[in-house]
Design brief:
By secondary structure, the protein is α+β, with helices and mostly antiparallel strands. About 30% of the residues lie in helices and about 25% in strands. The strands form two sheets. It has a six-stranded mixed β-sheet with strand order 4-1-2-3-8-7, with no helix packed on it. It has two domains: about 1-20 and about 160-245, no CATH class; about 30-150, Domain of unknown function DUF4426 (Immunoglobulin-like, Sandwich), CATH 2.60.40. Helix 3 (about 170-175) crosses helix 5 (about 215-225).
Length: about 250
Amino acid sequence: MQNSRFLGIALLMFVVSIGLTGVNTAHAHKAQVVGDFKVDVGWKKEPPIVNEKNTIEVIFSIASDFDKQRFDIIPTQSSAVVNPNDITGLAKDLEVRIRIGSAEQETLTFAEDSEIPGTYYADYTPSESGLAKIQLYGKINGSDFEASFHPEKVEERTRSSSVIPDWIRNNAKWWSDGTIGDSDFISGIQYLITNHILGVPVTHQESGDSEEIPSWIKTNAGWWADKMISDDDFVKGIQYMITNGILRV
């Protein structure tokens, strides 16, 4: 019950933050309408950071009348009836050419998500900062198409190596004072990292058995919640837990 409570609170506060900032997990994705289909393109992990592994995400869906009013429309020659299966099985005809700043243009191929129809991924690590131009080529419903997108700008790594939403301080405070237990806090942090809500630099994952959480990590969480130590100091505790098999991501 407490685990559900923690995740529920985390999700609620994340939704509240969306309402206040107008941002969601795909906030920098760009969309166009291709014939009768909406195409969203962007980074899976936002913001994209130089030399950090990322993924270009392309999402196809059937365009609504609202979509056709809101986004640019690329006409196609197809007159075939549209059905939900049209958005699947497109990987073999899907290609992206990406250029960032002065870096040489690269061509990527895609794989379809096995669980989310119409969603395609291609791994990509940006080598320099700047605006990205993505040229997408493909075929849908029997028609070839081409579209250009400009997703979120690639950023340099800032002096602080972690990106932590400020509202997570409440969860850290509840854990440090015993309102929620260790397992609840661990489950919540796993959820936040997996869904890219909490940014933690890549850390080596040990395969051994987990151990108890050292008391200094919980103490640090309380200090961080009270803004007595930096974000990076708090993240060091999370990295320790990942390295020592306490927290698995």
